[in-house]
Design brief:
mainly alpha; 5 helices
Length: 163
């Protein structure tokens, strides 16, 4: 497990060290994160091969849904920002964008709920509880790890600039 975590940290470090060119970049990092998540989930939930085969497509679908959702919401957010900076913002344009964002949010939440139900339907009651705990803990650990990597890269940049 420690070896998998080390490889995971190295890949994330390499991905974050790359110049940012947009939301589509870093797909290799996402692949490694997903592989690591499946490995950990398999171990922590005690998943069978059959369960993995049923859950994996839902997890991939969820990840794809989230990427598209976040990208589209970010695009509309930028439109809202631009519109409210104008001397005379268009109420119609703002209403259209906000309505689109609200509708997208609703569809996103419905799809997430559907996928979660499909995943839960494959698991035993104990595995369901373990899945809920795993999801929260994994996301927290992932955020902390990414912050540590970014902090370490930031301090390395500062050290190089001071020389």
């Amino acid at each position: 497990m420690k070896r998998v975590l080390l490889v995971f940290i190295l890949v994330i470090s390499a991905g974050l060290a790359q110049p940012r060119q947009g939301i589509y970049e870093g797909s290799r990092v996402l692949e490694v994160i997903n592989a690591y998540r499946i490995t950990r989930m398999t171990e922590e939930l005690g998943l069978t091969d059959e369960q993995i085969a049923k859950i994996l497509p839902r997890l991939r679908e969820r990840d794809s849904l989230e990427i598209v959702y976040r990208r589209d919401q970010a695009d509309d957010y930028r439109i809202l920002e631009s519109e409210i900076r104008k001397h005379t913002p268009s109420d119609t344009r703002i209403e259209d964008v906000m309505s689109r964002m609200k509708d997208r949010e609703q569809v996103y939440q419905e799809e997430l709920a559907r996928m979660r139900e499909e995943i839960m339907g494959v698991l035993t009651v104990e595995q369901q509880a373990r899945f809920i705990v795993f999801e929260v803990r994994f996301e927290k650990e992932l955020r902390e790890l990414i912050n540590r990597v970014r902090d370490n890269q930031g301090s390395g940049v500062e050290e190089n600039n001071n020389q």
